[in-house]
Amino acid sequence: MSRLPLAFVICLVALMRVPCMAQTPASSVSGAAILTQSLNASGVGQSPGLAFAANGTITYFWGGEQVQGPATLRARGHDQFRLDANLPEGTRSHAVSRRAGTRKEANGKRTEIPYHNTLGLGIPSLPYASMAAALADPTFTISYVGLVESGGRQVHQVRVVKNFPNDRDPDGLLAGLSRTDYFVDALTFLVSKTEDLTHPVETITESYSHEVELADYTVQSGIAVPTTIREKVGGQTIWEFRVSTITFNPNLSDGDFTLP
């Protein structure tokens, strides 16, 4: 009996889990199709209106020290997010609502998050609502970057950019600030990482990579939930949140995303 070509066997095995895209030019792969498959795999589907409240423990990594405490994450839709951390010195809060953001330190000091650092923000702990919103909005360009390696896994890199009218963004600066890359696991089709750029408060001419790593997924109420969430800036871990409980579609209002 003749033997099947090795490449054919590899593709046949891969097709049991995922499309055999490694042999397909990136130009023929649809970024929108990858995001759609990811939404389906997550259980979120095409709705951008997901809301949730999650409790757990957060660890901040500051100056070589680790500061830990209980914390709560809340989110509604694709553009409202809040993190409250109860640390030994007091409560530290971070809230973004429709591109307006505020940070409040444990000592009560408030800092407004500049617009150039909120333009690309979605919901860092569960990015699927942001993906669904981009798929439904024709002003977004969704492109497939390629199959890359991240964290020892093969992932599909998909880039999402919001386009603005020429009179508002003649040089494409706002579009660049809105760019978000999604890294979708090639086996599970769940998002393993998102990446965009962050900038100092006073300028947009200096940029740092901003990553949110999502790991240790579990299924809660039919939705795949990452129970380990890790934020990095410039390759350095800023905080790590471990989810203990999550509730979907709680009764949240705009006031929940405004710091007192």
Task: Supply database-style keywords.
14% helix, 260 residues, mainly beta, outer membrane lipoprotein receptor (LolB), chain A, single chain, 4 helices, 13-stranded antiparallel β-sheet
Amount of helix: 10-25%
Note the run of SSEs as H and E.
HHEEEEEEHEEHEEEEE
Mean pLDDT across residues: 83
Task: Provide the β-strand percentage band.
Answer: over 45%
Distance between the termini: 75 Å
Poorly predicted runs: 1-24
What does this structure look like?
With 260 residues, the protein is mainly beta. The protein has a single domain (28-257), classed as outer membrane lipoprotein receptor (LolB), chain A. 14% of the residues lie in helices and 47% in strands. The protein has helices at 6-15, 31-42, 128-136, 173-178; strands at 51-62, 65-76, 80-87, 90-97, 100-104, 110-113, 140-150, 153-162, 180-185, 191-198, 208-220, 223-233, 236-248. The chain has a 13-stranded antiparallel β-sheet. It is globular and about 50 Å long. The chain starts with 5 loop residues before the first helix and ends in a 12-residue tail after the last strand. The model is unreliable at 1-24 (pLDDT under 50).
